[in-house]
Design brief:
This protein has 159 residues and is mostly beta strands. It has one domain. Helix content is 3%, strand content 38%. The chain is built from one helix and twelve strands. The strands form two sheets. Strands 2, 4, 6, 7, 9, 10, 11 and 12 form an eight-stranded mixed beta sheet that branches. The protein has a four-stranded parallel beta sheet with strand order 1-3-5-8, with no helix packed on it. β11 and β12 (152-155) form a beta hairpin.
Length: 159
């Protein structure tokens, strides 16, 4: 299902639970039928606060419905978690042959805080969240909707 998955961060200080460097690879020439048919994630983020990701590289998530980042580990149905969004901080990311960078999972609430612009391409302190009409600030010019690559809304640091 995922190269890396973190379910819970417990009650720790922000930035204590983190990935610092790493590599996650989707499809390679050394594959098997199950992987060819799958739609894996490079990383599935926790369903709790206080998690950071820096220096993670994503390669070859460019087939089926594969995605670099999925959200809310073990939230496969609406009753599995509360309905609140969790913030995850990202920096120094690299994507190579990744068609969909983010694919939100149930309950389709997450706050992805891009500290340096390497996730969203919107500059430092930008944001990615799932698309909900009440969060649509595209008229302001500071946000845009990208359902193909980011599965939601991207906003600059002015929002």
């Amino acid at each position: 299902m995922a190269g890396l998955e973190f379910s819970l961060t417990e009650d720790v200080a922000d930035g204590y639970a983190l990935i610092d460097g790493g590599l996650t690879i989707g499809k390679t020439s050394n594959t098997e039928a199950q992987l060819d048919a799958a739609s894996p994630y490079g990383l599935i983020t926790p369903r709790t606060e206080g998690f950071s990701v820096k220096g993670l590289k994503f390669f070859n998530f460019n087939y089926n419905k594969a995605a670099g980042i999925g959200t809310c580990s073990h939230c496969f149905h609406d009753n599995a978690t509360d309905s609140g969004a969790r913030e995850v901080k990202f920096s120094k990311l690299e994507f190579v042959n990744v068609t969909k960078k983010v694919l939100y999972q149930t309950p389709f609430r997450a706050i992805l805080h891009d500290l340096d612009g390497t996730l969203t391409g919107q500059g430092a302190d930008s944001w990615a969240t799932p698309y909900w009409k009440h969060n649509d600030w595209t008229k302001s010019g500071e946000c845009s909707v990208d359902l193909d690559v980011y599965n939601g809304i991207l906003c600059t640091n002015k929002v």
